[in-house]
Amino acid sequence: MRVTGTAGEPHALLIMPNSLHKPIIHFVHGNSFPAGTYRVFLDYLRPHYEVQALEAHGHDPAYPVTDGWSYLVQELIATLAARYREPVILVGHSLGGILSLMAAKARPDLVRCVVVLDSPVVAGWRAMILRLFKFLGADKKFSPARFSEKRRNLWKDAEAAYQHFASKEMFAIWPPQVLRDYIDAGTVPHPEGVALRFRREIETAIYLTLPHHLGRLLRKPLAMPVGFVGGTESVECRQAGLGAIHKLVGKNFVQIQGGHLLPMEAPQQTAAAVLAMLASFNLS
Hints:
By secondary structure, the chain is an alpha/beta fold. It has a single domain (2-136, 210-281), classed as Rossmann fold (3-Layer(aba) Sandwich), CATH 3.40.50.
């Protein structure tokens, strides 16, 4: 298995197949975390699957961030159609899980199944409130966007960036190698040191354009198996409510110890849950 990608892009995760019998997982990252951040988690899947990913959604001008993420869905669909000659398994975290569901709904011919990792699916009355807040321009007050637009994005070097994040409670619980992977994949050279690769204005725009039509879109079952693996301590999913995702996935609902960022907090346990979920689908 050989890792390849655009020059200068660490952990690009474009995996060239050397064993044609392995099913393909296309992984879709969460907001602000390039795919290389998930290397440890994805490494646990690679003995069984060929793993690929687009390194950073939302940064191609051809697929801008708009309300409801329609162009981001088109970006994912275009990636799947261009890369693969067969339907693939979609595994997506947070933003990535929602994009995976929307892409699978739009193009079921491209997707064998979907596993969603702690994606907050907003539906019902919560979706109505979200839509109202967007209309009134009050959504930022209740969104992570109020933090992301002011997020620090420049350090003198990679080690300074690592120490900055390691001092934060949210990142301190990650295994050290996962945080190192985030620094490797998530920063780029800057004249003054290193800067965040995932631009904070893109991250903020994604938060402010969270789809409010998912309940209507997912009212009917998808044409393929769908599963959910979430964190027992996930504030994001608790705020969004789990009713819609329960209805969508049925018995394919699993929670493991962890928060919203469980693929980084507990990569081995999350991978084990994903592998078990996929085995239960009996895809072969």
